[in-house]
Structures are given as C-alpha cells and as structure tokens.
Amino acid sequence: MQYESVIGLEIHAQLSTDSKMFCGCSTKFGAEPNTQTCQVCIGMPGVLPVMNKKAIEYVIKTGLAVNCRIAPYSRFARKNYFYPDLPKGYQISQYELPICEHGFVEITVDGITKKIGLTRIHLEEDAGKNIHEGAGSHSFVDLNRAGTPLMEIVSEPDIRSPQEAAEFVKKLRAIVRDIGVCDGNMEQGSLRCDANVSVRPVGQKELGTKTEIKNMNSFRFVEKALEYEIKRQIKILNEGGRIVQETRLWDSNKGITESMRSKEEAHDYRYFPEPDLVPVEVDNAWIERIKEGIEELPDERKQSLIQHGLPEHDANLLSINRSSSDLFKKTVNLGSSSKSVSNLMIGDLRRILNEENKDFDECPLGPEHLDGLLKLIENGTISGRIGKTVLEEMYKTGKHAESIVKEKGLIQVSDESEIEKVVDEILSKSPKEVERFRAGEEKLLGFFAGQIMKATKGKANPKIVNELLRKKLGN
Amino acid sequence: MELHTLSIHEARTALDKGEISPVELTNALFKRIDSVEPKIKAYVTIAREHALARATDAEGRIKNGDRGLLLGISLAVKDNMCTDGIRTTCSSKILENFIPPYESTVTQKLKDQGFILIGKTNLDEFAMGSSTENSAFGRTHNPWDLETVPGGSSGGSAAAVASDMCIAALGSDTGGSIRQPASFCGVVGLKPTYGRVSRYGLVAFASSLDQIGPITKNVRDSAMLMNIISGHDPDDSTSAPIAVPDFTSGLGRDIKGMRIGIPSEYFIEGIDKEVEESVKQAIRKLEALGAVPVEISLPHTGYAVAAYYIIATSEASSNLARYDGVKYGARTEGNDLLDMYMKTRAKGFGAEIKRRIILGTYSLSSGYYDAYYKKAQQVRTLIKQDFENAFKKADVIVTPTSPTPAFRSGEKTDDPLHMYLADIFTISVNLAGVPGISIPCGFSSGNLPIGLQIIG
Asked: Is B78 a catalytic residue?
C-alpha cells in the first residue's frame, strides 16, 4: 500500500532578549551554574513575575513576519508539573489566548512552492537544566536558563515529507535570525524542534495515530529522524500492527527514535490563567511601530533575486539569509554574471562554509573576492578547476584571487604549442590507451585530459587540451 | 498611661512631643508580651533583639529631627510576608527554617517610615483556615476568651493587636482572613480593594484573591497604615497603577444622606441572633446619624462559598507546588526523586493544606476544568455584577462580618464544611475584588466581640 506522511512541527525559539522573561537576570549562555538567578527565577515564596515587554515585542515581530493575526488581547497560563529544573512547579506559558494565530510560511521543495500553515505562536518561559554528571546518586540543578523567554511556533499538519519539514525549519530559522529575535543556534539549543508525525494510506482523509518526536537538534536530524519514524510506522502497519500514541526520542548516534513515554503516562498539565499577570493588550499603534523594525524577509529577497535573473532554485537558496543575498547582489553589481556568481556561491563556497559549520553571515569573503575570482576564470587567466583552489586559498588567507594566482603561479596556460608538447608526451607514453580509444573507448578522453592536467598542475586551458586531444586522436 | 495600649496615632503624637521614647514604648510592649503571650500565643517569632536595636536607632533619629510616620512604632506582621533576614514560616513545617533573602514590598514601605518589626504572627498554615488552629506551631487563643479561637487566618495579628502586644499589625485576606479575626477579637480589620496593596513578598495562597491589609485598634490607624502601604508596585503587575488618596481625609466627616445597602441574603437562617441584633442596632445607629438604609440584593451569594473554594484551592494547588524540597525549605530524603517529593510534602504540609491541594488539583484536571474551575469563574463574574448593581443603589453595603462570634477551639476542626461557612459573609468581597472593613459593633452575652462589615 502507498502511504503518505502527515507532519506538524513545534519550534521552540529562545528569544535573544538581554534579560529573562519575568525578572532582570541575564540570559547569557555559558555562565557558571546558578550565577544568573534571583529570587524571582528561583521561585522563592512570595515573588511575582513582571513581564519583559521586549519578549512580547519579539513574538509580535515574528507573528508579523509569518503572516499571523496578532491578538489584541492575550493572556498567560500556568502549565503545572513537577520537575527539579522547574522552580515554581509550573511554567508560565500561554494556552487559550496566544499572542499570534493563523499564519503561514512558504517553502520550496523540488521546485514546488507550498504554504505551511501556522496554528499559533506563543510565549513561555524556559526551564533550568538538571545535571547528572559528577553528582553521584544525586543530581545538580542549574537555574541560569530558568525564565529565559521562549517562543513556541506550532505548525498545522501541512507537512508531507521529511524534506519539507527540514525546509520549514530552515525557513523559520532564517526568518527569526533575519528579524533579530533569535540567534537560531540549534546545537546550543536556542532553536529546538519537535514533530508530530503520522502516516495514512494515500487518499485516506482521517489522520493516522501520531507519535511525537523530540530531540532533533539540527536540520539534518529533523530529516533523518522523520525518515526513520515514517519508515517505522509504515512497517508496523504493513505487518498488521497498530501505532502506539507516544512520545519518542531521536537518538542521533543510533539513528533511531525510541519510546520515551506513552499517552497514558502523559502529564495532565492543569492549565489555568496565570493570576499573577495581567492580560497583554496590543493596539495597532504598537503593531505598526514593530512592523517598521522589520526589514526585507526571505520571500521578498527571493523575488528580488529572481528579478536579478536567477532561476527559482538558486533564488531560493540564496535568499535564505540577508548576507548571502547581499553578497550575491554586490558581486553582480561589480560586473560578474548572475549565473556565475550564483553557481560559485551555491556550489563551492557553500561547500566550504558547510565544512566549517558556518553560515553566509560568517563568510570572510566579500564581493570583491568573488568578483575578482570570477573575472579571472572568465577571461581565461585560470581554469575553473584552479578556481576552486584559489577560492579555498582566499577563504583561508583573505587574500584576493589575483595575488594568489600570481604568488602560486597558477595562471592558465593557453599557449597551444606549449600544451601540444605535453599532449604529445602523454599520448606517446600511453600507446595502449590510444589504441583502445581508437577502437571506440571514447571515455578514455577523460583519462588523457586528466594526465595532461596533472602534468601541467592544472594550469592547462581545458578547452585547448580537449581540442588538441580530439585533433591528435581523431581521424 | 499604659504605653502598650497606645494606638499608632497616639504613639506618634507622644513620640513627636517627646513625652515617650521609642525604647520606652518598645520595652512596654515586650513587658506586655512577657505577661500575656504565654496564654495567647499570637507570635511565631518574636524579634526582640532586632526590635530593641531598631528602637535605639529610632531614638537617635527622632533626636536628630528625623520624621518617619512610623518611626519608633512597633508593628506585628503576619508570618506569610517575607522579611529579609527574619524567618518567615507561613506556620508550616515546610518553611520552618526559611529565612527570606529579600523584603516584601509592604514591609519595605513600613521600614521606609521607620517602623519596628516586633514579631511575626501566627496564622493558619499558608493562610488556609478560619481559626488559627491549623498552625504547625500551635494554635492562637482569643484574648477575650482563651477557650475560643481568634478567627483566622490572621488570628495571630488580630489577637496581638487586641491584647496590646503590638501597636498595630498587618494581615492578609483571601476570603475573610483579616476581617473575620478582627471581628472575633474586637479590633478593626481592613481588606483593601484587590490591587491596591502590592502582594510582592506575600507568600501566595490564592493569587487572584489575596490582599494585604491593616489590623488596628481603631479606624484612624487603619487609614494611616493604608496611606503607607498602598500604591502601584512595579514588582507586582496586578497592583493598580492608580493614585493613592489620603485615606485619613474622610475621618470624622458626617454621613448624612449616605445610602447604606442592606443585602436581604445576608440575614439568613443560621445567623446568630445576638450577631443579627447587634448589627441591626449598628444600622439603626447609622440611620440616627443621617444615613439612609436601602434594601439591596446580592442574588448570587448562595454560590459564593462553592465558587471560592474551587478558585482558591485551584490557585493554591499551583502556588504550593514550589515547596518540593529541591531549592529551599524542609526536605525529606527519599529513594528517588518522586519518593523525595512525596515524603517532603507528606511531612511538610498539614492536613488542611493537603485537603485543599487535592481539591484544587481535581478542579483543574482535564475533564473537570469546565465543570469546576471555569464554572466557578463564571459565578465569580456574576457575583461581581451583583456588587456593581448593588452599588448603583447604595454607597456602602453593611453586613455582619461573621455569622457568629468566636467559636470554641476544636468545635469545627473536624467539620471543614462548617468551618468554610464561617467565611460566608466575607468571601464574596474577595471574589468581587471590592474592599471591606470589619469594625467592632458590640458584644455577645458571653462577652465576645461582634463585628460589623462595611463593603465599599
């Protein structure tokens, strides 16, 4: 039977406010345990929360960036459960009346763009952390993070594949980073993602039983965990089994999801309106002021890149953040063709950045670097292949392409007679291969070209090499 | 002149004129405490050294011409308001050794006026109760008859004021916890409008109902303390950002033409005959002074106690979750985390607390929320509307504070429902968020005080 998967995501984004949500403590990451705490975030008897207005503003800003309706009136609720990292025994969150509702973002997968609905965005406080290492039979509790503002973005079950899920997370991450409300760091946990996933036979309307997947702390893991979970569910159904509604944890080492707790073990959070806080009232003037602070968003950038002559696929990749889009435009403005800039950025530059675990906004190369490199390739000074080496060198040293090419003697050899010597030499060294080629083994052309490039340290103009080879081997 | 009998106003005048000194006054109070406290047991903590040091300090400051409204005056504070460096127990084992590292807003405001904290008074554990019998540190006795209860939960504060072991005191009122003990002890107790006084530092029982207020020997002192403790507090979002009037400005004005509403629902069956007679006599007296009695109706009164016990216990079940043995307060070790939680809370909380946590947890549970908590909130809205309608006809509403005078110790401890009904006249006021004051209006044949409640 053919199955389709139905996925809804919950994204938790730590807001990059300087202070916590209900007290003045710092939110800085990595301080000594329990040094960023006070009576309020420790939950001393008698203390009261006071709302950080900036956090509300950040949520509204996010809501506006993802087409949400901003509630004129929203309120906080208590989510009650016991855990040592939760000092008050309840988390201040939102339940019935969140700040934002009914939004959407657009994602593009395999050239197809679709809208993913957003049910709601609400604001809540983060918990602390339990530390089990080095505590013997006890555990330590670090409350530095307790009370840090956390925004929860809940999607509709509109996502149909792990790729779409990963795209969705990427898109949201790009947006929250763009508008400056969250640093989007998934490894440090500033951006966390849970998924609700079920499968159903294609064509069936009713949803299958869902599981909740937690602990997917990178785009790659979102995709992998969901792939695994969908396969697991389909296998169970194909074997005549039933899916158990439960929460499962992604184990990235084992590459599997494992049962954490069943529906029966699920908490009854006993939500009720938080009596220590007054409702949040948002008027249009406030919304307008916040709107003014939002600059170009990924989708607008994408449109402008398409107008710059880029195909949708390239525009999609380069619009994901402002720095990549800016780098592209500035390089094109220096004279390079948009396609060559886009190829360079999406190809080799992105590969280098990925290897270094960096994003375009941390890229040390400017438009002059890229433009300089592309000009050298275009006017035949170096080959595309040498271009890769030059790019890597530029990345490492920050030097410009021209000086690297000069220092390292990488200038392309386009002198036909000089290349001809090497061609003759290689061909005379490989009589057997020449015979096989003539017998019809055309792919050996690549072998000869490779040998020649090796002999010239990559400097031979590939176009001329090919022409000469054809001439010499040809009939 | 017996110094311990002085009111705030009288003490202020005498201190300012130099007729008495802060040290003399404080010593007189401790002498009084030494003689009557062993019988009354109003205090959980007596801050003798602290108070005497502050008195000496105040003496110097007065000589230097320093003027604080409470400079040199000793007040008692209910032991559910956090006092920096001074033990705050809520009369619970779970906080038996808890010393707050911060000051509540109200006590800070008293400090700013130079007050002397003489001690922390007993209460029903976490302010849950109407008799000050539910204290982990023993019950408090009514100074008028040691066999009867002082009321609760601010029974310690009311008894301390009534027996002159302090000049005045602060209490907290969630369903009548200031007014009912004031009525039982024959003193003045005011529950301000919700939001008028900051709750920051008041250990929460039911956050949407709790309010701090003064318990005093007379109405003038009540107004004086209100002037000091009222006002918006940036640390309490639910405190009202509204200017504070001079509460003493209304003192001594005549009441000619004032419409006093008398709710038919409050003079019900089961109300003590002597209480009813005493209150009616007070109404006649007000009439003689020019006030105009008007009959009004508060039709949803019958649902108030039920709604209150759902809302208050729901909030309490959440507010008390923080006492888990992890961060502060008493911990009983266990085999694992859950075991530690259960043992800590089983040992740390008294029976009434457990009963209310169970009630509140149940009311908020999924599947029951709509039938209980939500319904109770709807009733609360109706009760609020009752008052709004009533105040269209009347300027104030007058009722008994409690259906009976002080009852005997142990009389209701095994009958929680009957105990809960002791608050029947005071609870609606908290649900509506309006202010209410209890003032003495006579005595029963057994020589126990009777209180008149005025709701504004």
From this structure: yes
